[in-house]
Amino acid sequence: RQATALNRKVDDARNGITVRDRGGRTFSRLAAEYRRSPLWTKLREATRRDYDATLRRIEKKWGATQAAAFTKPILREWYETLYRENGRWIAQHDIRVMSVVLGYGELRGWIPANPAVRLRMETPPPRDRVLSWEEFDALCAAAEDLGLAGMRLAIAVAWYQGQRQADVLAAL
Predict the structure, then answer these.
(1) CB-based contact 31:101 (threshold 8 Å)
(2) For residues 11 and 26, what is the distance between their CA atoms, to the nearest angstrom?
């Protein structure tokens, strides 16, 4: 068991994962376990990068806190603090990522229930900014001027299909 624990610490260090605790079921430990789980490997690369950056930010604040210590009132207060300081997009995003990890903790039996569920967060309105035809033409012309036919195609695919960036890149 000790060898397995030491190997996990080596793997964490190689992957840039720092666990800020001296044992126990802390949020940092739970996040590290989630990063090693099959659920993590099934995420798209862009999602993993986003979650990893968000988890590092969350761990600075909550890393040493026991996972079972989180309650709805604590997470609601943190959501409201994030909302005031960073806006509703960041507040909702950080709580949702935390909810994913705490949900994993619930599945593993570390916590009895996910306290980040149903916090009555304000859902930001959908973004509705689209390029104008002039902007589209300028992007296509710039790609052609640079000799990037593939980029021009990617711009056109994204424009006409309304796909997410990751889907466009996967299609090329």
Answers:
(1) yes
(2) 18
Strand partners, 66: 26
CA pair distance 154, 172, nearest whole angstrom: 7
Task: Record the tokens describing residue 126, joined without a space.
Answer: 């959908």
To which residue do tokens 């995003």 refer?
93
Question: What is the 3-class SS of 8-51, one letter each residue?
Answer: HHHHHHHCCCCCCCCCCCEHHHHHHHHHHCHHHHCCCHHHHHHH
CB-CB neighbours of 168 under 10 Å: 17
Query: Could you tell me the pTM of the whole model?
Result: 0.63
DSSP 8-state secondary structure symbol assigned to residue 65: S
The runs of H, that is alpha helices, within the chain are 2-14, 27-36, 38-41, 45-62, 72-86, 88-108, 133-145, 149-161, 165-171
CA distance 119 to 150: 44
Closest CA to 111 of 82, 56, 59, 72: 72
- pLDDT of the chain, 172 residues: tens digit per residue: 888 878 877 777 676 665 554 557 899 999 999 999 999 999 999 899 999 999 999 999 998 888 888 999 999 999 999 999 998 888 899 999 999 999 999 999 999 999 988 888 877 677 666 778 898 899 999 999 999 998 898 888 877 777 666 776 676 6
